[in-house]
Amino acid sequence: MEAEAYLNRLPMWANKKNSLKDIRIFLDQMGGPDRKIPAIHVAGTNGKGSVCAFMTSVLKKAGLRTGTFISPHLVEIRERFLINGEPAEKNAFEEAFETVKKQAEHMVEEGFCHPTFFEFLFYMAMVLFAREKVDVMVIETGLGGRLDATNVLESPKVCVITSISRDHMQYLGNTVSEIAGEKAGIMVPGVPVIYDGNDPDAAGVMREHAEKLGCPYYELKREDTEIHKITKDGIRFSLKDETYGDTVFDIPFIARYQVMNAALAVKTIQVLEDQIPVSLEALKAGMAKTRWQ
């Protein structure tokens, strides 16, 4: 596929890259497709993909056409662009690629840097989701720092930050606190944030950022969940939360750490209830049917 070959030639990282202001200009010149769709923005070190998978499955069960942008891919790049949990159709993928390639050539003529691999894919996702008329999009960050290309999303409905550990230290910092500060960069003034509070250093940074920006914040820890049963088919757990009471959720994974990721997704759905309503039945069914490789 010509598109895939072209994309694979793009540098993953670049010494000189487009600023967030440049990325905003790029999107606006294509009509600002990201501004038309409610977004759920997910950052963190571990569990981002799982949280995105839970959210996608639940929103789909709720009858919402859902676009999901994730990384990495296993076999082909198309897997990074999901429509209702399935890779985008080849024609839609190629049309989005051609649109972004044409715009990139124009921007380079104007003196901007050519998009990096991740920037190009992010632009494609925004074009694709707008054309597919999705009701909501779930966007996973790349490196997930302040300067991540996805950080041009101006008014996500909610931000979710999964557990933090030492990753991409050459870009994000040497300590968990420094890395947490970079990941917290996705927070937007006044926009609710749900985060993994198990690491006290990371949690302190998250709270401080949220309070500074006036973001309603929801901190989840392992003790906020209760595991009822683990079988070869998955885990049954509940969230110690007054909204859900004794509601028990099933997830089709056997790794205990997935309970925290599932809890973050459940809490996110609760926080969104006034903007993106999801019934309890859809929530339970979506959690139970989640697929993530």
Written overview of the protein:
It is a single chain. Helix 3 (48-61) packs across helix 9 (257-271), helix 4 packs across helix 5 and helix 7 (176-183) runs parallel beside helix 8 (200-213). 40% of the residues lie in helices and 16% in strands. The protein contains ten helices and eleven strands. The strands form two sheets. Strands 4-3-2-5-1-6-7-8 form an eight-stranded mixed β-sheet, sandwiched between helices. It has a three-stranded antiparallel β-sheet with strand order 9-10-11. With 293 residues, the chain is of the alpha/beta class. The protein has helices at 2-9, 20-29, 48-61, 90-109, 117-131, 169-172, 176-183, 200-213, 257-271, 280-288, and strands at 39-43, 66-69, 81-83, 86-87, 136-140, 158-161, 193-196, 217-220, 225-231, 234-239, 248-251. Strand 3 and strand 4 form a beta hairpin.
State mean pLDDT (0 to 100 scale).
91
Number of strands: 11
- Termini gap: 24 Å
What order do the SSEs take from the amino end to the carboxyl end, as H and E? HHEHEEEHHEEHHEHEEEEHH
Order of neighbouring strands in the sheet with most strands: 4-3-2-5-1-6-7-8
Indicate the percent of residues in helices: 25-40%
Calculate Rg over CA atoms.
19 Å
Structural class: alpha/beta
Question: Features of this protein?
Answer:
293 residues; alpha/beta; three-stranded antiparallel beta sheet; 10 helices; 40% helix
